[in-house]
Write a structure and sequence with these properties.
The protein is of the alpha+beta class. The chain has 3 domains: 74 residues; 233 residues, no CATH class; 243 residues, no CATH class. It contains 22 helices and 12 strands. The strands form 3 sheets. The chain has a 4-stranded antiparallel beta sheet, with helices on one face. The chain has a 4-stranded mixed beta sheet with strand order 5-7-8-6, with helices on one face. A 4-stranded mixed beta sheet has the order 9-10-12-11. Strand 3 and strand 4 form a beta hairpin. Helix 1 packs antiparallel against helix 2, helix 2 packs antiparallel against helix 3 and helix 9 crosses helix 12. The protein is globular and about 70 Å long. The two termini are 49 Å apart.
Length: 571
């Protein structure tokens, strides 16, 4: 019997998860929890009785993934938030921000999704059973993308926006993403000549801290709030921009979007690089599409193994260009940040490193490029508004990543781990096949253990580079480690402030958390365990404390190797 279940069975499992989510949001909380557990137990019993052990475990894993992905889309908080907003609209004077609905806008969105997923779909249809593990990965990805698409279709069809003039609030009624924005928190308002779909489609950009409520290709209003940016295309965008921009704390800046036809070389070039990012980085469609093509051509085994590796090497070489295109980053050659950056680059011995800015409300910075000659540092516009010494500290940290080739190091660690697994599977294929036949449960336990170890290994390598970058970069700062620690503190406090406001925007008053722990505070042992063992960065409280206590990277390295396990334990 095949390892992978057929399509009707998969659809049945997804249908069960939909029912379970519907029960969890429609019934009272306590009753919903009991009903969901009974449904889950019944579904698991049916799966393990009806199907062989291997298929049953696989179906259970797919069902869990679908359930939690749906739970994020259809949760109780969103339903209660929608009800609270409807009640508020009934009690207050409101003006609807009317948006014309153009089916071509939705069709273009769906066409881009299909383009990005084409390779994965072809692989799913052409690949034999020997590629079952990769097929499962494609199924998981397709579930996530399908739910993202359903959310965008739902917002296109039913989302409504209202302006409350007396309360000075912007209300968004949406089954999937309701919002309540106080305009006193509006940071920036800008109007674009047209919808920039390549910037807004979630598969074609790195950031997701925005909500796209546009329903046509008309003039687009961009409203930036703490932690989130809202896009809409009202019938009279200029009027609404003039009205709402009066509340903004920052004047709109940046490069204005130009309206260019699809066949314009600049648009085609941007579509190529964005599409490449969507297929090769955001998903697995590029690699699976290549394998599907080679399978269709009946290529020899050595070619099936060699060409994906060569493509991976190409991706490493052009990674900076792909990331810059995906983020719509603009060169930053003037201003205080550019001057400080050049001074740091000279001290680090990486004068050819380029500095870019990207329009985003997130507080973040990135190092891109696999080698020093192709290095680039990207800072968000929100990060650039931090105090200058803190921006300088973030620049120094990212410059250390370029100097030490940390992006390459992490990618090599990923490739080495996968290569060792592939080599072991090739060398011990017959024993593994015998083991899987006679000890199916143990084989699945082994597979899940490998899936658990993989992120832990990557976390170890990534955290090594992060702690080293803190101390290496601090040596290039006038304030040394104290300035680096303060830069991380300012960054974390800004993230805390925006996250708290962002949570308030999307939750009803009765369910909004009264307070939450800061990300620079030492959390419970379970969250410390997750951060130290699975995340790319050590907890911020530890990084800041280490900069204050340790003299240099060798001392910090010893402490990190010890605390990585000590801080992961209770107590």
């Amino acid at each position: 019997m095949d390892i992978l279940p057929d399509a009707p069975v998969l659809l049945t499992i997804v249908a069960i998860t939909i029912v379970m989510n519907a029960v969890s949001i429609r019934l009272p909380s306590k009753v919903a929890a009991a009903a969901s557990m009974l449904l889950a137990a019944a579904a698991l019993t049916w799966v393990f009785v009806r199907y062989p052990l291997g298929q049953a475990i696989l179906l259970a894993a797919i069902g869990c993934h679908a359930y939690f992905a749906l739970a994020e889309l259809l949760d109780r908080d969103k339903r209660e938030m929608n009800a609270a907003l409807q009640q508020k609209l009934r009690q207050a004077r409101s003006v609807e921000i009317v948006q014309r609905q153009d089916a071509k806008r939705l069709a273009a969105d769906l066409a881009l999704t299909a383009l990005a997923m084409m390779g994965a779909v072809l692989f799913l249809g052409l690949a034999p059973e020997a590629y079952a593990a990769l097929k499962v990965l494609v199924i998981f990805m397709m579930i996530s993308v399908t739910l993202q698409t359903a959310e965008r279709v739902g917002d296109f069809s039913a989302a409504r926006l209202y302006w409350l003039p007396e309360e000075e609030r912007l209300i968004v009624l949406s089954r999937f993403q309701p919002r309540d924005f106080p305009l006193c928190e509006l940071k920036e308002a800008a109007v674009w000549p047209s919808v920039d779909l390549l910037r807004l489609h979630p598969l074609f950009t790195l950031f997701s801290s925005y909500q796209d409520y546009t329903r046509s290709f008309g003039q687009t209003l961009k409203l930036s709030f703490p932690g989130e940016t809202v896009y809409l295309a009202p019938d009279d965008a200029v009027y609404w921009h003039r009205l709402l921009a009066a509340f903004a704390s920052h004047r709109a800046g940046g490069k204005e979007n130009k309206v260019l036809p699809l066949w314009h070389p600049a648009v085609l070039k941007r579509l190529f690089w964005k599409g490449y990012f969507a297929a090769a980085v955001k998903g697995v469609s590029a690699y699976t599409g290549l394998l599907a093509l080679l399978l269709w051509l009946q290529a020899p085994a050595w070619m099936m193994a060699l060409l994906p590796v060569l493509w991976w090497l190409l991706n490493m070489f052009i990674s900076d260009r792909v990331l810059i295109a995906a983020m719509d980053a603009e060169p930053l050659a003037e201003g205080v940040a550019a001057e400080r950056a050049q001074a740091i680059f000279r001290k680090a011995g990486i004068p050819r490193t380029r500095l870019f800015s990207v329009d985003s409300p997130d507080y973040n910075g990135f190092a891109a490029g696999m080698n020093i000659g192709h290095g680039a540092i990207i800072l968000t516009t929100a990060t650039l508004r931090l105090p200058t010494p803190s921006v300088e500290a973030i620049l120094a940290h990212e410059a250390a990543h370029i100097k030490k080739r940390d992006v390459l190091t992490v990618q090599l660690a990923r490739f080495l781990f996968i290569g060792l697994l592939a080599g072991a599977a090739y060398l011990f294929y017959d024993p593994l096949k015998w083991f899987a036949t006679h000890y199916k449960l143990a084989m699945f336990a082994l597979i899940y253990a490998v899936m658990l170890i993989f992120p832990m290994v990557l976390s170890f390598v990534a955290q090594w580079t992060e702690v080293r970058a803190d101390f290496t970069g601090a040596a290039w700062l006038p304030g040394g480690q104290r300035q680096m620690a303060q830069g991380l503190t300012d960054l974390a406090e800004a993230q805390d402030r925006d996250l708290e406001k962002s949570l308030a925007h999307r939750m009803a008053d009765s369910r909004a958390p009264a307070s939450r722990a800061s990300i620079i505070e030492r959390d419970s042992w379970f969250w410390r365990f997750l951060e130290f063992q699975f995340m790319a960065h050590p907890p911020l409280y530890w990084r800041i404390d280490s900069l204050a206590r340790e003299r240099d990277w060798p001392e910090a390295r010893k402490r990190w190797l010890k605390d990585r396990f000590k801080e992961s334990l209770p107590g």
